[in-house]
Each structure stands twice: as C-alpha cells, then as structure tokens.
Amino acid sequence: MEDDLISKKELLDLTGISYGQLYRWKRKQLIPEEWFIRKSTFTGQETFFPRMLIQARVRNILNMKDDLSLDELASRLSDTEGFSEIRLTKEAIVERNIVTEIAMSVYGPAVESKEGLYSFEQLLHLYAADTLLSKGDMSLDEGRILLRTLEKHAGALTGKPCELYFVRKMGVALFLLAPSPVELYFDEGVRLVAKVALGDLVEQLKGRLS
C-alpha cells in the first residue's frame, strides 16, 4: 500500500510544480480533496497522494493548461461525463495514438458499436489491453480474456476505486477486478503478473483524448 502513495515533497520534486500551484489546483478542484491523505511519519504529519493518479493528473494539467482556463480544466478533468459523449472511429483512435494499430486490429471488432464507433468505456477496455500488451506481460489470446472480464464486470465498479489483477498459475491466465483497497491472498504457485488501478488508466486516457 505504501508503494502506491507518493509524498508531497517527492511529487513536487518529480513534477517540478510548486507548492503554490499544487494548492491552487486543489482550490480550483483540479485535484480532488480526497487525494490529499494525511499520515503520521517520524517527522510528524505529512501529506501523501495516490501515486499513479496524482502523477497522471499533474501531467494532464500541465499538458492542457496553456489551452484551457483553470475552470475549464476542472470541468474537463473532474467530470467523466464530459467524455461520455465521445465516439471515435478506429482510424481516429490509431491516428491519435490512443491505442496501437495491432491492438485495434485484434480486439477492435469485438467491442465496436454497430456504427463502427468506440465509446469512452470501450476505449478504456482497449487501452487496458493495449497497456498490458505493450509491457510484454500478456499474450494476444490472454487479451481477449481480459476484454471479456472488463466487459462483464467493470460496469459494476463504475465510479468506484478498483484494481485489475492479472495472475497466472501453471501457464493459465486469470483476471480479477476488485474494489480498492483490498487485500488478496493467492494460492501457492500463483504469480501476480500485473496489478493496474483502473482510475490510473482513466486518467491516462483522458489525457490522450484531451
């Protein structure tokens, strides 16, 4: 769990933003209040953040702040509804480098709408598969299992923090979706191949769509 958090000092050092910027963005609701986590340390109280979420959010803010006002940014980043109307063609997705051409070719036909368009939710599932493929963690066939898992269960966790677990035992791949935080205990011989917070993927996808 501690590995999933980043201290305020480390965040400022890594991103190059100032203390003032960070708290101004908080006041403008660019960064959710609940991401500021106060914890006791040996030096006293310190502020931590969910590591992947805050890093993705800061990158998105820095990438968009020159084109949008802070109020427009807050609306864009905090409101997933703003992305719910998105419908993209396969060609647009590949051209904008949202999902690779190989992932679109293999998985795209199975999830596209009758009109040949892709919604934000469908894009998120494709993006998750593409992310694991690009890391070399997953085969093309295992990606099909992942997409079925997301299609069947991700809707039940919409709007809630959740994580995707990819495990393998004796060559057999399994995917699990679970609310976060949760402690999972695996049988002997089970190898955790990847663990991905869906919230992180949502943040990254927003950045690619903006």
Question: What characteristics describe this protein?
Answer:
210 residues, alpha+beta, 2 domains, 3-stranded antiparallel beta sheet, 8 strands, YhbD family protein, DUF4004
Shape: globular
DSSP strand (E) fraction?
15-25%
Low-confidence stretches: none
Structural class by secondary-structure content? alpha+beta
Query: What order do the SSEs take from the amino end to the carboxyl end, as H and E?
Result: EHHEEHHHEHHEHHEEEH
Gyration radius, in Å: 18 Å
Strand order of the largest sheet: 1-3-2
N-to-C CA distance: 30 Å
Major beta-sheet overview: 3 strands, antiparallel
Separate helix tally:
10
Could you estimate the helical fraction of the residues in percent? 40-55%
Q: How many beta-strand elements?
A: 8
Overall number of domains? 2
Describe this structure in words.
- This protein has 210 residues and is α+β, with helices and mostly antiparallel strands.
- The chain has 2 domains: 63 residues, no CATH class; 134 residues, no CATH class.
- 49% of the residues lie in helices and 20% in strands.
- It has 10 helices and 8 strands.
- It has a 3-stranded antiparallel β-sheet. A 3-stranded antiparallel β-sheet has the order 7-6-8.
- Helix 3 runs parallel beside helix 10, helix 8 runs antiparallel to helix 9 and helix 8 crosses helix 10.
- The longest helix has 15 residues.
- It is globular.
- It starts with a strand and ends with a helix.
- The mean pLDDT is 87.
